[in-house]
Amino acid sequence: MKRIVFKVGSSVLTETTNIANERMLNLVSLIVEARKKYEVILVSSGAVAAGYTAVQLNRSIPESKKVLASVGQSVLMSSYKNKFDIFDVTISQILLTEEDFDSRVHTEIFQDIIDRTLRNDILPIVNENDISTTPDQLFGDNDQLSAHVAYYTGADMLIILSDIDGYYDSNPKDNPKAQIKKIVTQIKEEELNQEHTPNSKFATGGIVTKLKAAQYIMSKNREMFLCNGFDLTSAREFLIDGVHNKGTLFTSKQEKKEEEKKGKK
Ligand code: ADP
Questions:
Q1: Is the whole model's pTM more than 0.70, yes or no?
Q2: How far apart, in whole angstroms, are the C-alpha atoms of residue 125 and residue 41?
Q3: CATH value at residue 100
Q4: Is 239 helix (H, G, I), strand (E, B) or coil?
Q5: How remote is the CA of residue 9 from the centroid of ligand 1, in Å?
């Protein structure tokens, strides 16, 4: 069975100062469906934003942000639990830091936990443990964390669910004529060095961290699919029906390179 990692951003999971329950439920039902076909790991952001629903501390102060994350992690997990309970899916919480990828011993510990969790038909929900870490131990955004999780757990594909339909030739929020790229087989240095543009106040990444995640995934011969997390139609079509309508596929596979070339003619 193929293994896939979903990554969902804060913008999808939260709405002003609340958990976006309906969107979360849609995500949960997609994951339930996907689990019939794939082994699924979920990397979920949203702890700080969820914490803010309970207590409005100043998130620009690093220590207060950690308190928000510590409050929010349980808010987030209980929201997931309520919804996965409907489908009888057991979930587990796995908090990682960059250090977990530093040494082979650490990496083996979390690989083993993920493998055992999946073998027992449990859905692992991974987030960055930003509570006890120093800034240099942090990935800082779950895009890159999820790329590492995907690689080290031997996943075939990373699916990033964002507030945007895919990767465009320029920022569609500034340029209404921006064109979506269907297949990307190479990312240029200047694309990786552009300004960070997270779209909501709780988002940390923007498109650059997604491109860095894609670069990492492609260098490891895996694939990444970036698509809309508000409307899950393209994710469902791609994963369940095997049809690529919308969304951007990042891949270094030869046959896809040819498809990309044809698309450009
Ligand atoms: P999330 O919380 O889902 O991780 P982010 O706000 O961090 O989302 O990142 C997605 C945002 O990146 C988009 O909403 C868009 O404003 C911005 N962006 C900048 N350039 C591009 C581009 N070329 N293609 C797509 N999105 C872009």
A1: yes
A2: 6
A3: 3.40.1160.10
A4: helix
A5: 10
